[in-house]
């Protein structure tokens, strides 16, 4: 409380983030209101939940469990979400990418070599995990040391053998520096599949920057279908559609929405740029129609390929353009009254011609 009060008093523009998994009350309430005074809390439970889910078969993933882990936070308490952190990626454990693709990452991540079913699954799910975490997990998003491109390995600092007071021996790594680094060059290599995973991360940030969905007050989860393995939710004017099914793609899949109008695709995890299969037409338009569905007043139909995440944005009414002149609809209340017809007269010989 003292530190937060001092920081915010001296630097009003500063942001403080607290690492707390216990759900401590008043953690993000201002000090003057009796709180601890942090601006954000790290949503630490999310990363642990993803590792727990990744140890299960695809058939055992529960959509409701994923949604609950991402949204289980105190109302109006701002959180920073992340898919993995040092607890998973340090000292011998696996990163999310390595949990998904394991040793295949050493041999089949080059674009000039054929992929495998394990690589295709891993890249698809890695993108979906990051986007659903960003979309539902909080008001801020954190990348952890290579998560943005699917870093294949953990970090292990040089260390020797240790013996705990209870007599348990912990083997070291012979003071090896082999795993004491991050391979950030992998994400920039245009001949590796890591590049597409990094491009997707940049696209996520661009969509958030343009639409500001993480700071929008409107969030509504309209579907978490355990049979279809589909999650649908709204955040701001965006509609997120996740199909976690390992095999089933859905044509004319109906998703609920709040606002009427035309929607378009603004992010597609299946885009070939991101290492996908390009099954969606980004020029397609999706029009809402009236009628309650999934507790939403309107809905529209989409194609949801298996293991994809797609974000649809509401397209605001565009002005009509005729002869390169923008036409503006004038409300009836300000339209001028009809004028008396003017009689044509002979032009003044001394006057200059008018521009058309």
TrEMBL record:
A cellular component annotation (GO) from this entry: cytoplasm
Gene Ontology BP annotations: starch metabolic process
Pfam families, A to Z: Alpha-amylase_C
UniProt-annotated stretches for the region Disordered: 336-356
InterPro entries for the chain: A-amylase/branching_C, GH, Glyco_hydro_b
Source organism of the structure: Gossypium harknessii
Biased composition (Acidic residues): 346-356
Gene Ontology terms, MF aspect: 1,4-alpha-glucan branching enzyme activity; cation binding
PANTHER family: 1,4-ALPHA-GLUCAN-BRANCHING ENZYME
UniProt-recorded name of the protein: Alpha-amylase/branching enzyme C-terminal all beta domain-containing protein
Alpha-amylase/branching enzyme C-terminal all beta domain mapped to chain residues: 220-314
